[in-house]
TrEMBL record:
Protein name (database record): Uncharacterized protein
InterPro entries: DUF3570 (IPR021953), OMP/PagP_B-barrel (IPR011250)
Keywords from the UniProt entry: Signal
Signal peptide limits: 1-25
Keyword Signal applies: yes
Length: 379
């Protein structure tokens, strides 16, 4: 599940009226705390975040973000009991992650914009390095129409524990035993899109994207059972193809319904050569109750088809090359209900609170809550 920060009303209203390049980025420091909890004590995430933005002049802005989180819980996995019987239960785990990102915005003489980004993320058994570039070009002096194109490349290192088949494979699931080695993967992402201001209170943004994954794409903690109906059933690490190509498009419509209320609606289509196709529909409304208080509410619907090599049955896999029982590759749909509150104390200080409730319809139905609280200081 992807955790996303809610859009602020200021950024939404700005998108309704003019393109982002016409606005001066704020100088600020913000602090936010995120708490995410799944039902049945499956996963719990605690994450403090710090973000800072600074305008060097009218041509350059630098934004930095830092996050540290602690993850604990249990994930569905096949395992053995004391009698050697195979079953699907919850495997406990703990992890810590640190992540940082930098984004430099450069404004050209014609006021086109270039975004240059660097991202780094590290966990106990995973590291990722990402570089990105995006260029925003305006087609006329009114800045009502813009084209954007960009791309990113990620290099990922995955620590894989070398275990044996059978009962000992489960012990290696959490890295407590066995030797290890490092695998890697590369992810490329290209995007092309356009933004059009339709009127003084509405705008439309559309974009198409293609992505490519190459390398070790298997979840090293995923377990499948092979030859279940034989005299020697085996617990083994799942195996996914080492290549994946996906593509899709995104459309977002912004509308100022009244002077105090704005609407943001979006649709995203994604499909890839693993036979996974997903649709995402999202609608958000934000309203200024007073000059200081803004309330938000939203609904997000997500649905996807299962990967061609996925199966949840304990007796399915035998000698198939690719095999996974990871529920994230299954056929499922999900609803997310969102609410937010932003309070602007004065021109310097502001505060925000957000809540999300997530309901996922998979083989083992799961619900989750996401709570955020934060403050921002402008200077």
């Amino acid at each position: 599940m992807q955790l996303k920060k809610s859009l602020t009303l200021s950024s939404i209203t700005a998108a309704l009226l003019v393109s982002s390049s016409l606005l001066h980025a704020e100088n600020y420091v913000s602090v936010e705390y995120l708490q995410y909890d799944e039902s049945d004590d499956r996963v719990s995430v605690s994450a403090p975040m710090v973000e800072a933005s600074y305008d060097f002049n009218t041509d350059y802005n630098l934004k930095a973000n830092f996050m540290f989180d602690a993850v604990s819980g249990a994930t569905p996995s096949f395992m053995t009991n004391a009698n050697g019987d195979l079953f699907k239960g919850l495997q406990e785990f703990e992890d810590r992650r640190s992540a940082a990102s930098l984004m430099l915005t450069s404004r050209m003489e014609n006021r086109d914009e270039l975004y240059t980004g660097l991202d780094f993320s590290r966990e106990e058994d995973y590291q990722s390095y990402t570089g990105s570039l995006e260029y925003m070009h305006y087609l006329d002096s009114t800045h009502n129409t813009a084209l954007h194109f960009g791309g990113s490349v990620s290099y990922n290192e995955i620590l894989v524990y070398d275990g044996e088949t059978g009962a000992s494979a489960q012990a290696d699931y959490d890295g407590e035993s066995g030797a290890s080695h490092v695998e890697d993967s590369l992810t490329f992402n290209l995007e092309l899109g356009a933004t059009q201001v339709l009127s003084k209170d509405s705008s439309l943004k559309v974009s198409a994207f293609v992505l490519s994954d190459d390398g070790y794409l298997t979840n090293p903690h995923g377990i499948v059972i092979r030859d279940y109906n034989s005299i020697n059933p085996k617990l083994e690490t799942e195996n996914r193809p080492d290549k994946r190509v996906g593509y899709g498009f995104v459309a977002q419509y912004n509308k100022l319904l009244t002077p105090d209320t704005s609407f943001v609606g979006s649709y995203r289509l994604y499909t890839d050569d693993w036979d996974v196709t997903s649709h995402t529909l999202e609608a958000n409304i934000y309203t200024d109750v007073t000059q200081k208080l803004t309330l938000g509410a939203g609904l997000r619907y997500y649905t996807q088809t299962q990967a061609e090599f996925y199966n949840e049955n304990i007796d399915h896999f035998t000698n198939e090359t690719y095999a996974s029982s990871d529920e994230r590759l299954s056929d499922f749909d999900a609803l997310t209900y969102k609410a937010s509150l932003d309070y602007k104390q004065d021109e310097t200080w502001s505060y925000n609170v957000g809540a999300q409730f997530y309901q996922q319809n998979t083989i083992t139905e799961m619900t989750a809550t996401l709570m955020t609280i934060g403050m921002k200081y402008k200077f």
